[in-house]
Specification:
Layout: E1 3-7, H1 22-31, E2 36-39, H2 41-44, H3 57-69, E3 73-78, H4 88-108, E4 112-115, H5 133-153, E5 156-159, H6 170-180, E6 185-189, H7 203-214, E7 218-223, E8 225-229, E9 232-236, H8 246-255, E10 260-263, H9 271-284
Parallel strand pairs: 1-2, 1-10, 2-3, 3-4, 4-5, 5-6, 6-7, 7-10
Antiparallel strand pairs: 8-9
Helix pairs in contact: 3-4, 4-5, 5-6, 6-7
């Protein structure tokens, strides 16, 4: 009942250019046993900016054909841009790209456009104001426009809480959900992204808190692992770090039938092993 997928740009990363196309990566993902993908156009199609002009109906139809041929669902169409950008002109450009991704998602048969939650600076970096009330209000104001467009297209806009960003924990995510009050606003749960060096030892309590508070709104799960190195948390493939997945996989088994869960930070060498590891833990629960 768990549908396991992969970030498409993690497939064929070290291969020759002709094997790094969207089409070749999709074929490889299917051969590796995945049923869905997380697709970020900019990372799998070179030479295109994927602004509002590029996100056209033909692209949507072609995307649908490529992944349909392989029997793969697009679990998430990624548009990970900064909705708290301080420059008004750049912010309007960013919004237009979200609007375009929502249109393409609807036409390509992808139900979720995914994003992280930004930072109140042009560099998209954690700073002293990132976790402030002002930053949260800015993000909510800008996200609400994008969610309105998601409602128009009948697509879900899903936000991914990340410790280094504005929405950094479950309580912040609940605030966003309550402020916007839209059935088209959903959550991507990436447990590792809720962690930092200071709270990593409390991770099981943090995961449980997120699953309880966000349960009804979780549309997709991201699965990866982490190691601590040089004073930082480093993301790695599932099964190669400190994570235990029993509580997360028990949650999805009991509460989220057939949910799509995409692996992150895999390599050509460990993608299949990571998939098999997660499936084995899931089956043994």
């Amino acid at each position: 009942m768990l549908q396991l997928g992969i970030r498409l740009h993690d497939v064929n990363t070290l291969c020759a250019p002709e094997e790094k196309t969207m089409e070749a990566r999709a074929e490889k993902a299917k051969l590796e046993g995945f049923s869905c993908v997380h697709l970020a156009y900019q990372k799998v199609i070179g030479g295109v900016r994927f602004d509002a002009a590029a996100l056209n109906e033909g692209l949507a139809c072609y995307t649908k054909r490529v992944f349909g041929r392989e029997g793969l669902d697009i679990a998430v169409l990624g548009c990970y841009l900064n909705l708290a950008h301080p420059d008004p002109k750049e912010l309007e450009n960013i919004k237009s790209r979200y609007f375009g991704h929502l249109r393409v998602a609807a036409l390509a048969g992808c139900s979720v456009v995914g994003t992280e939650t930004g930072a109140p600076n042009a560099q998209y970096k954690l700073d002293a104001n990132t976790h402030s009330r002002e930053a949260l209000d800015t993000f909510i104001r800008n996200l609400s426009e994008v969610v309105e467009r998601a409602e128009h297209w009948g697509v879900s806009m899903a936000i991914e809480p990340v410790w280094n960003h504005i929405v950094y924990n479950a309580d912040r995510a609940v605030e966003v959900l309550k402020a916007i009050q839209s059935p088209n606003l959903r959550i991507i749960l990436d447990p590792v992204n809720l962690l930092c060096m200071e709270n990593a030892d409390d991770r099981e309590a943090i995961f449980q808190d997120a699953m309880e508070k966000l349960c009804d709104h979780i549309a997709v799960v991201h699965l990866k692992d982490f190691v601590r190195r040089d004073g930082k948390l480093i993301s790695v493939a599932a099964g190669t770090g400190e994570m235990r997945y029993e509580s997360i996989l028990r949650f999805v088994k009991e509460r989220k039938p057939f949910i799509q869960a995409t692996l992150e930070n895999t390599t050509n060498e460990n993608a299949i092993a990571a998939r098999e590891f997660i499936q084995r833990v899931y089956d043994e629960i």
